[in-house]
Design goal:
The complex is a heterotrimer.
Chain A lengths: L1 H17 L10 E6 L14 H10 L4 E3 L5 E3 L2 E6 L5 E6 L13 H11 L9 H10 L1 E6 L4 E6 L6 H5 L7 H6 L2 H6 L7 E7 L3 E6 L11 E6 L3 H10 L4 E2 L7 H6 L3 E16 L9 H5 L3 H10 L2 H8 L27 H10 L11 E9 L5 H14 L2 E9 H10 L6 E6 L6 H5 L17 H12 L3 H18 L2 E14 L2 E2 L14 E2 L2
Parallel strand pairs in A: 1-10, 1-11, 13-14, 13-15
Antiparallel strand pairs in A: 2-3, 4-5, 5-7, 6-7, 8-9, 9-10, 11-16, 12-15, 12-16, 17-18
Helix pairs in contact in A: 11-13, 17-18
Chain B lengths: L1 H28 L14 H10 L6 H13 L5 E2 L4 E2 H36 L4 H13 L4 H13 L14 H5 L3 H42 L2 H8 L4 H38 L5 H10 L3 H29 L6
Antiparallel strand pairs in B: 1-2
Helix pairs in contact in B: 1-12, 4-5, 4-8, 4-10, 4-12, 5-8, 6-8, 6-10, 8-10, 9-10, 10-11, 10-12, 11-12
Chain C lengths: L11 H15 L1 H18 L1 H4 L18 E2 L5 E3 L10 H37 L1 H16 L2 H12 L3 H10 L2 H16 L2 H8 L4 H37 L11 H7 L10 H28 L8
Antiparallel strand pairs in C: 1-2
Classes of the chains: A alpha+beta, B mainly alpha, C mainly alpha.
Chain lengths: ~525, ~325, ~300
Amino acid sequence: MKKLITGVAIVFGLILPSTYTLAAPPDDTFVVGLPTDTKGLEPAQISSRHTANIMKHMFGTLFFISEKGTLDPNLAESYSVSDDAKEYTFKLKEGLTCHDGEPLTAEDVAYTFNRVVDPDLAFVGNSAGFVFPSIDFQEARADSELEVTIVMGAPNHVALGLISEVYVHCKDSYEKMSKEEAAENPIGSGAYEFVKWDKGNQIVMKKAKGSAVSANFENLIWRVIPEASTRTAELIAGNVDMITNASPDQVDAIDASNSAKVQKVSGTRRMYVGFHQGEEYAVTEGGAAIQKAEVRRAIQYAVDVEAICANLLNAPCERATGLVNPNNAHPTLKPYPYNPEIAEYLLDQAGYPRDGNGVRFEITLEAGQGRYLNDKNVVLAICQYLDDIGIKTTCDIMDWSSVYVPKIRKKEAGPMFFLGSGGGTWNPLYDMSDLATVESGPNYTKWTNEEWFKGWKVINNSMDPYVIRREIDRMLEVFYNEGPWLLLYFQPDFYGVSNRVKWQERRDEEVDIFDASLAN
Amino acid sequence: MLVYILRRLPQTILVILGVTLITFIALQIGGDPTYLFVSERASPEEIIATRIKLGFDKPLYVQYLTYLKNLLLFDFGDSLYFRQPAMKVIFETLPATIELTIFSMLIAVFGSIPFGVYAAINRGKWLDGTLMAIAMLGQSVPNFWLGIMCILYISLNISWLPISGHVPFLMPIFQGDFMQGIKNFPTTVTYLLLPSFAVAFYSLSRNARLVRSSMLEVLSQDYVRTARAKGLTEYTVIMRHAMRNAWLPVVTIIGLEFGFMISGVVVVEVVFAWPGLGRTVFDAIAHRDIPLVQASVVVIALFVIIINLITDLIYAKLDPRIKL
Amino acid sequence: MQSLDFKNQDSGYFKKFKSFFLSLIKNKWALGSLIWLLIIINVAIFASQIVPHDPNRNNIMERVAPPLATDKDGNIKYIIGSDALGRDALSRLIYGTQVSLVVGFAAVFIGGFIGILFGIYAGYYGKWIDDIVMRLADIQLAFPFILLAILFLVVLGEGLINLILVLGIGQWVTYARIARAQTIAQKEKEYIEAAKALGVSDFSIMFGSILPNIFAPLIVIASFNIASVILAEAALSFLGLGVPPQVPTWGAMLAESRDHIFARRWWLPFFPGMAILLTVLAFNIIGDWLRDYLDPRLKEVE
């Protein structure tokens, strides 16, 4: 027994010194704490903002879209558009290489684009599932050493932004790899080079020499820490430089610590409650009620969005007036105020008085949990507001990925459902393209309003920005008065940032570490 | 010995089959898993195409039989979520869980011995009471709670104790890089301390009480009185004679403990960001990643069965009264 | 004349009860535990009468109020504070008693029912029934409980019924094993032979004669089992697989309080945590005492 104790003591004595290196990361390294791991490192297969943020540091795109909508050269230095607006030709910078040394030319860019729709590889994800159908991608061809053309099926005002969501890689290296190999061994073209991926634990990158884009830190580590309080603990202890998705309730604690602070930013993700307009839901009393515009308008007055923002999200906000981000929204529409008396009056007028039990009609509100900031509590609060004005609401909160998402995709969630949709600040049409056509994937409410959808014809056929903007405003008014969304807020983002570093956040949930630096 | 192992083999295979069948049926009950593998804005045609590519359109029994056939070839299919062979994903996270589980078991088994022995020899005195009180508490606290408390009150205040994460020890060894593994070992141990404690505390408490009562029983036996009468020191009496027999009940428990410990491991792996199989399984189930879930379950089941077999053999070796 | 001397009417049951009671009083821990359990059972039964507020009424303007928080008129509104949605923590704690106890007892009842049924049949008939039951037991044991729970809950969805079913079905094996072992032991006894000779049906023998005699160790298991079911519910709530969001359980309240620890809102985890701790402890202590009382030789039963 004594020997055992002595033995243990010796082992500990040996361990202690070698572990003194734990604590703040070295000066040339930036560590990010993420709540989930990435699915894979295949550039053509990205399905979440998280993965996109990680990949963006390893792979170049043709252009960077800044938050304000300006185009900054990434791999391309200029572009031109054909007369019929269906072909975009990009001129690449000279001397580009991929991380394995292979020169990056127009041929590689064309290969990247064509590979996305390769039927043998069968990619699903943002590029194959959203970008390419949106621009009706036909083909990509290399016109010369440095000029590559993307051919679309029809003109599209947001084509440049969409095309810039595609991550470019080289031909030879990816041709040689099988799909499985590619998912684990990314050979990139961006500012950082892939070092290793310890699954579930971390992704490590180091600065690539001679890349088109500059970066400050030599090493970039993305650590996976699922438990929120553990993530915060690591931030406060100084082991991690930045955490995404800091919980609103931990904001004060982080700010109070001497080692980190929270950078709050009003995001671009539109949060809303959808009113399902499909026939299948008109069979219930509640479902039929919300298909009437007067009822929907009444409900807008019933929810105190500002209280939700201030109390549940710890981020005062102004309520949305539509689906477009504030900098591009309708110039004069004012947000619906919180006024339960007006709501009750309007519902009486619409033909839904309170019965003997105080109930006007019953309805179900469906939601997933764990995906959005404090989603469960926000939904419960909304249900309470509806209950208070006589709409007996059943709050059905289910598992996000395995139950709710399939329902949403099939457009079967309802009659009311809570959801967030990523948006942008660089063009109102990007935000509005959720409802580009009645058949659009994101038209989860199956809305068919003529007044709205006819506006797209005008927009797509015009090149005059004044005409377009006028039409946009007209459509937004329709949306305000009769739209299928209970207008809520734009989701704020909380980034916890260690005092060791300086880092600028973006509003559109994109994370750029390129320009981050040490605080002193 | 060999005969015993051979006798157990059909039973083992039956158990594994049962386990795969249960996982397969359970995951299909919920409906069509196709929707998790397309982007937020995918078209209906794309969804149908995906369904066919991933094989969800074939009848259930065909899916299951194909799966069994592949099992025999040790091909567990591709993880739908990671788009890599499931076996590969498991292999990458299994070492971390092995480290955690073995270390936890060591704590639970070897920690409980001094615990229980000291309580037994000091029976009735305050040390006994205190130790037993701690043991009772240990069996009454949710282990995720224990983990979070450890982080907040211990590791946040001790700078050399890591809060979360992992430094691999077994993995480099499996990959052949022996030196790296050995170099990492001390750091791995510091990362292991708190999570293993959180996993092991429940079992440690239970075992301690078991050791104590077992020890008390042994101490009242005749041969112990004889040893004392012979004039041997108390120390020798305990260490040489009593311990060996007091140990046995603990060994029988180890096999059952292992299965139970996996339950604690899943929760603790989430709290401490430990990149192990428990977390992989949990994420995989949430993503309806059937191949990965099935593969993980089979691997874990095999693991548990092997450990059970080993402990049965150890028990048999230690106690000559038991015939194989 | 028959004397109506009650004092001397020491029938078997009365004696048993007396010694039971005396042993209980001597062991203060067991007594304390029993008192605690009686308290919470009463709280559960009379919950709707004693709650100060509606446990599900949220009021986000008054969220995370500390204990003894007052409203505008200076009256104490939230005795032990309010949670992240402004719901009264005490009301939720009280209703949580109902859920935790119901889940605990129901799961144990289901597990016990299935387990004892299987175990007695397996022990009594032996041969192929025994084989099947033991194989099933092995399969279940090879399947770590939490994975089974995660699997079924993710597929079947949340819900109190699903939770109870999953927790219940996960427990049957221990009961089955003990019931089987005990049945095998009892099977050879004389009173069983006698009953068989008299032509009593197998069913009556199994459940009329054997079951009452093997009940003792099974009760001990049940006590420990309730404790572990309550802990399991907490773990499942932590992993997000417990009851639906509005239903208050101690485990869910504890799990929800994680985010607030850093904000020093100690009351959010403290009260549900203590409730779990004391109740689980109580069941463990009672289990211990029952085991020691009923048969000190049953040390390996746990």
